[in-house]
């Protein structure tokens, strides 16, 4: 992911979705010594390696 700013809702949704994927035995994208899927997802998010995009409706 790029360095764009995410709202707190987007951040929560991305980390939550990735945590669920990890809990369901999806491959972990970083090298970490933790079994906590939420912690792993947070670190992946901070490193920018989560393959999830955010689509925003830009209307005025």
Task: Describe the structure in brief.
With 60 residues, this protein is mainly α. The chain has two helices and no strands.
Task: List key phrases describing it.
60 residues; mainly alpha; Eukaryotic RPB6 RNA polymerase subunit; 2 helices; elongated; DNA-directed RNA polymerase; DNA-directed RNA polymerase activity
Describe what this molecule looks like in 3D.
With 60 residues, this protein is an all-alpha fold. It has a domain at 8-47: RNA polymerase subunit, RPB6/omega (Eukaryotic RPB6 RNA polymerase subunit), CATH 3.90.940. It has helices at residues 8-23, 37-47. It is elongated and about 45 Å long. The N and C termini lie far apart (26 Å).
What value does the average pLDDT take?
A: 90
The CATH topology assignment of the domain at 8-47 is Eukaryotic RPB6 RNA polymerase subunit
CATH class of the domain at 8-47: Alpha Beta
Range of helix content:
40-55%
Pfam family, one: RNA_pol_Rpb6
Protein name: DNA-directed RNA polymerase subunit Rpo6
GO biological process, one term: transcription by RNA polymerase II
GO molecular function, one term: DNA-directed RNA polymerase activity
């Amino acid at each position: 992911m790029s360095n764009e700013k995410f709202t707190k809702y987007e951040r929560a949704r991305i980390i939550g979705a990735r945590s669920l994927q990890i809990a369901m035995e999806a491959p972990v994208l970083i090298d970490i010594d933790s079994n906590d899927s939420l912690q792993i997802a947070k670190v992946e998010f901070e490193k920018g390696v989560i393959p999830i995009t955010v689509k925003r409706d830009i209307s005025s």
